[in-house]
């Protein structure tokens, strides 16, 4: 080595001809001034304004009746190919190959030609529940009603009315404090006899304005609080395994809570995967669906049986549909009964299951919540497929490859009499492969799976905290009924995000706001008594924003201490959400 | 549109300052290229911000990059010891990374790693640019920088990534004039290396944060990095190198002298014989590394394997450019053997981390390429001379 090394020559300083030190200092002063000026430019939320070709025009005003649609009447519908052993298949849209699926009974036996008599269907979102409130993720089967009621807003201010402490859990190699994605609290205005059956106080039973907050959170417990003051209405239902998604209250007003477990670890302890059904009279779990299922295609490598989806219930057919992160769509005949006078509620789910494979499947799991219109249902999955299935037969009507992991819940607009879905994906395996780091925001024809428009927004890949669309799109209404809002994470920097308002018909940008802190929290609209719409969303820095959906500009913000990953719920003037600060917040908008 | 305006402005300011300095120096391009690049970049960045064409991250990486370049230039001009300059560099880079960590753009461990790598890279580039100026090859840093920027522009288009494309275009806009208005031989610009190094750091950091792998980011400069590391190592490892450092007078001054560019880079020494040949070797080596990097990106290779594969041609360049390694048959065979060992390690890494035959074949192909070039250019050393009849 010694002999091989090059010979170092003279190491010497050569005089610079730049000039005197004074000139160097002058240059330094100039550049520092420029640098300070540049530094001052960073950190503000800039809003780019586009155009609103459909301003003031709602896409339509039609209401959908609850009635099943004959699949044969769908445009371009072809019956699926029978593949034997109960499996069927049809071509996958947007990719080569077929999607194949199999329907199983509760004992995991394939059903060759599943054709039950009872219809399962939904009408317009406004018909979803019999009682007022936000009873499922984003309020209804269209996932378009995350807020309920009307708010008197004059000052355009937010103030914390109350807080309630909650816990945290260590699981899956991480720490989960407070509430997380999607984590929308349920707000229920119970009928008086139900309140009585649930043994609420006499004052609460007598109070016609009483609203209860029912909130399954990370620490595994279900909290029950009064919306008005945050006081405990019933003791929390204690659990060990964390909830990540959003629960569902039976839309018939039955005191039943359906909530999926998101984690099965608590420190060093490990437990089963379950979808829980809670009796809110006895305040305890009364039924379950196991997430560890032999028919699941998911091997992770030992299976992953979480339920992040928020179930939809067809109250007329007594049927619950819950997609699982194990890649199975569960259909449960609930056999639920409620006798308010006797103070008894019962439930005994009977399951039918459907699993599917596509050429692009690698993970097999559904984290989004399904949207529904008539007998058609839609969900997106971890493998970047959007599937449309018939709620009665569980037949897959069409499936489209979306290009990457899609956890965002699709939002349905049926105001034209035809179902259209707004959806988007995140940067998952494309990012891992270091290519195409864009979130694809799309409007899709619910009947055919055709893409009506697509808007791409570059986003960062992060294995642990995905960039792209994780929040659920927000359908405009009232003065912004021409728009749809997407809150996209990790766009201009890993810590930043972008909220875009797009024209529902064309996908044109009405405005685009660069968020200093990205957000997984789904935005909501509050309908003001003054006729205006007010937007609310939380961000990863813990700020809750009240903004003008016409412009994207904030009216005000308030800190909730830490990351607001969960989505807020609104009932009249009260906003409820929990943050990573391990508190549930009751926030008044005034 | 905003990006176009910003780039045109940056180009105009850089060119304007270079022309102005030429006039000031009485018809010769003055040593104001670093200042020109700095002012052009600042003007472009301000335009980007004013027109809404930039991202916050562009400003977050550019401001410290310019400060870093400026601080290094001023401190070098005042003959401040390398140790103290290293402290200043560390403070600026660490401060930026800490800010990014606080913003949530990366984990603390990533910030710490980026600080260390950034510090090393900054000094390597400053050293190499200084050496190029000493060797009367002032266009080489600009040419390599432009090549690297073009490569990262390709990466930015493929990811795609908001801001990285804009930043790459801006850096290209301020680099192009340096190819035309390079200072003549003998004029040393102490600001040029630090400013170019700052910009390279900003671009590399943005690309890495945008999910380009560390190997992809370092690829355009890998040959230069190998050269500088080898040269600095040789200054310590060889008796002549230590003797030379000993002439500094004290260990404290020797430390400063060790990190000061001279004319002992492998590329400089290779160019001493024929500048064109030396440049072709440097450009060829860099081109092979970058092409391999793009190929591996295309087929999706884990970054550790990618780095190992890139190391093979970069080391091959070193072996074939150091006369002491490539002139004698024994040392050349030993050197190529070591290089083949690195390739085999890369094969093992590919087998463990990827498993595809194609990926496992890449290091072998890279080593075969080096062997092939050795056979072509060092035939007389590699093959035994035929016995005289």
Describe this structure in words.
Chain A is mostly beta strands. A 7-stranded antiparallel β-sheet of chain A has the order 2-3-4-25-22-21-20, with no helix packed on it. Chain B contains 19 helices and no strands. Chain B is globular, with a radius of gyration of 21 Å. Chains A and B meet through helix 1 of A and helix 2, helix 3, helix 10 and helix 11 of B.
Key features?
heterodimer, A: 590 residues, mainly beta, Methylamine Dehydrogenase, Chain H, 5-stranded antiparallel sheet, 6% helix, globular, disordered N terminus, B: 389 residues, mainly alpha, 2 domains
Question: What is the topological layout?
Answer:
The complex is a heterodimer of chains A (590) and B (389).
Chain A: H1 21-41, E1 47-49, E2 81-84, E3 87-91, E4 98-105, E5 133-134, E6 147-148, E7 158-165, E8 168-171, E9 174-177, E10 186-188, H2 192-197, H3 202-206, E11 212-216, E12 222-226, E13 232-237, E14 248-249, E15 256-260, E16 265-266, E17 269-270, E18 274-279, E19 284-290, E20 312-314, E21 319-323, E22 328-333, E23 337-339, E24 344-346, E25 350-357, E26 371-373, E27 376-380, E28 385-390, E29 396-401, E30 411-413, E31 420-424, E32 426-427, H4 429-432, E33 438-445, E34 451-458, E35 467-468, E36 474-475, E37 483-489, E38 497-503, E39 509-515, E40 524-527, E41 533-538, E42 543-547, E43 554-559, E44 569-571, E45 574-579, E46 583-589
Chain B: H1 2-24, H2 33-50, H3 56-77, H4 82-103, H5 108-134, H6 139-158, H7 164-180, H8 192-209, H9 214-218, H10 222-237, H11 239-246, H12 251-258, H13 266-273, H14 275-299, H15 303-321, H16 323-326, H17 329-353, H18 357-377, H19 379-382
Helix pairs in contact in B: 1-2, 1-7, 2-3, 2-7, 2-8, 3-4, 3-8, 4-5, 5-8, 5-10, 6-7, 6-8, 6-14, 7-8, 10-11, 10-15, 13-14, 14-15, 15-17, 15-18, 17-18
């Amino acid at each position: 080595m010694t002999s091989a090394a090059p010979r170092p020559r003279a190491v010497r300083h050569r005089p610079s001809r730049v000039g005197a030190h004074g000139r160097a200092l002058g240059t330094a002063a100039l550049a520092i001034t420029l640098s300070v000026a540049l530094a001052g430019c960073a950190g503000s939320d800039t809003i780019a304004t586009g155009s609103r070709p459909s301003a003031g025009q709602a896409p339509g005003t039609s209401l959908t009746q609850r009635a099943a649609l004959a699949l044969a009447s769908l445009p371009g519908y072809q019956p699926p190919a029978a593949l034997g052993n109960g499996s069927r298949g049809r071509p996958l849209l947007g990719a080569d190959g077929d999607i194949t699926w199999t329907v199983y009974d509760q004992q995991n036996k394939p059903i060759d030609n599943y054709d039950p008599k009872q219809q399962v269907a939904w009408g317009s979102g406004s018909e979803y529940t019999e009682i007022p409130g936000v009873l499922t993720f984003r309020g209804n089967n269209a996932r378009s009603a995350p807020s309920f009621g009307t708010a008197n807003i004059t000052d355009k201010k937010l103030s914390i009315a109350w807080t309630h402490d909650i816990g945290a859990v260590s699981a899956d190699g991480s720490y989960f404090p407070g509430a997380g994605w999607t984590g929308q609290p349920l707000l229920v205005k119970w009928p008086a006899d139900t309140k009585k059956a649930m043994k609420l106080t006499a004052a609460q039973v007598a109070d016609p304005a009483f609203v209860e907050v029912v909130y399954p959170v990370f620490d595994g417990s279900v909290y029950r609080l009064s919306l008005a003051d945050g006081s405990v209405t019933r003791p929390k239902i204690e659990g060990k395994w964390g909830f990540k998604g959003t629960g569902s209250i039976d839309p018939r007003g039955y005191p039943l809570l359906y909530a999926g477990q998101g984690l099965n670890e608590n420190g060093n302890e490990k437990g089963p995967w379950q979808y829980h059904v809670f009796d809110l009279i006895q305040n305890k779990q009364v039924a379950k669906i196991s997430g560890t299922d032999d028919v699941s295609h998911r091997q992770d490598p030992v299976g992953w049986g979480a339920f992040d989806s928020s179930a939809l219930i067809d109250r007329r057919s007594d049927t619950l549909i819950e997609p699982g992160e194990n890649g199975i769509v569960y259909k449960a005949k609930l056999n639920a009964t409620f006798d308010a006078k006797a103070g008894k509620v019962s439930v005994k789910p009977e399951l039918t299951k459907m699993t599917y494979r596509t050429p692009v499947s690698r993970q097999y799991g559904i984290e989004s919540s399904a949207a529904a219109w008539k007998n058609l249902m839609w969900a997106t999955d971890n493998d970047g497929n959007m599937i449309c299935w018939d709620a009665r037969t569980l037949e897959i009507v069409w499936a489209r490859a979306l290009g990457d992991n899609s956890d965002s819940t699709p939002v349905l607009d049926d105001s034209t009499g035809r179902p259209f879905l707004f959806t988007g994906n995140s940067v998952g395996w494309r990012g891992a492969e270091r290519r195409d780091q864009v979130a694809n925001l799309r409007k899709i024809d619910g009947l055919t799976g055709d893409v009506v428009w697509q808007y791409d927004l570059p986003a960062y890949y992060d294995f642990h905290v995905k960039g792209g669309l994780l929040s659920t799109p927000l359908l405009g209404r009232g003065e912004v009924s021409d728009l749809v809002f997407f809150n996209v994470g990790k766009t201009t920097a890993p810590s930043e995000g972008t909220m875009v308002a797009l024209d529902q018909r064309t996908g044109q940008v009405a405005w685009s706001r660069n968020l200093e802190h990205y957000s997984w929290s789904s935005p909501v609209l509050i309908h003001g008594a003054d006729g205006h719409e007010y937007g609310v969303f939380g961000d990863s820095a813990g700020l809750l924003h009240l903004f003008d959906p016409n412009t994207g500009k904030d009216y005000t913000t308030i800190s909730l201490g830490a990351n607001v990953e969960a989505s807020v719920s609104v009932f009249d003037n009260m906003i409820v959400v929990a943050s990573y600060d391990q508190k549930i917040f009751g926030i008044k908008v005034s | 549109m905003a990006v176009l305006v910003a780039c045109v402005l940056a180009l105009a300011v850089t060119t304007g300052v270079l022309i102005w300095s030429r006039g000031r120096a009485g018809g010769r391009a003055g040593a104001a290229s670093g200042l020109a690049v700095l002012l052009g970049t600042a003007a472009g960045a301000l335009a980007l911000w004013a027109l809404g064409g930039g991202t916050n991250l562009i400003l977050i990486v550019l401001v410290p990059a310019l400060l870093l370049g400026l601080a290094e230039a001023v401190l070098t001009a005042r003959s401040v010891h390398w140790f103290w300059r290293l402290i200043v560099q560390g403070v600026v880079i660490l401060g930026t990374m800490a800010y990014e960590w606080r913003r949530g753009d990366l984990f603390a461990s990533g910030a710490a790693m980026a600080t260390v790598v950034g510090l090393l890279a900054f000094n390597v580039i400053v050293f190499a640019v200084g050496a190029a100026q000493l060797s009367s090859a002032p266009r080489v840093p600009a040419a390599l920088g432009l090549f690297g920027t073009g490569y990262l522009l390709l990466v930015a288009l493929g990811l795609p990534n908001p801001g990285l494309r804009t930043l790459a275009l801006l850096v290209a806009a301020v680099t192009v004039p340096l190819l035309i208005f390079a200072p003549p031989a003998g004029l040393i610009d102490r600001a040029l290396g630090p400013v170019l190094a700052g910009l390279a750091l900003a671009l590399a950091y943005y690309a890495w944060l945008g999910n380009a792998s560390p190997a992809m980011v370092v690829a355009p400069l890998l040959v230069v990095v190998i050269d500088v590391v080898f040269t600095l190592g040789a200054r310590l490892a060889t008796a002549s190198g230590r003797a030379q450092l000993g002439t500094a007078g004290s260990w404290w001054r020797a430390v400063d002298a060790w990190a000061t560019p001279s004319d002992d880079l492998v590329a400089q020494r290779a160019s001493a014989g024929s500048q064109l040949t030396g440049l072709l070797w440097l450009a060829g080596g860099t081109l092979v590394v970058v092409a391999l990097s793009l190929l591996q990106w295309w087929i999706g290779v884990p970054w550790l394997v990618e780095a190992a594969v890139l190391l093979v041609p970069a080391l091959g360049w070193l072996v074939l450019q150091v006369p002491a390694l490539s002139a004698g048959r024994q040392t050349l065979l030993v050197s190529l053997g070591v290089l083949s060992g690195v390739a085999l390690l890369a094969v093992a890494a590919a087998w463990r981390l990827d498993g595809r035959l194609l990926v496992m074949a890449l290091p072998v192909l890279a080593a075969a390429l080096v062997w092939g070039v050795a056979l072509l250019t060092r035939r007389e050393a590699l093959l035994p001379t035929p016995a005289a009849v």
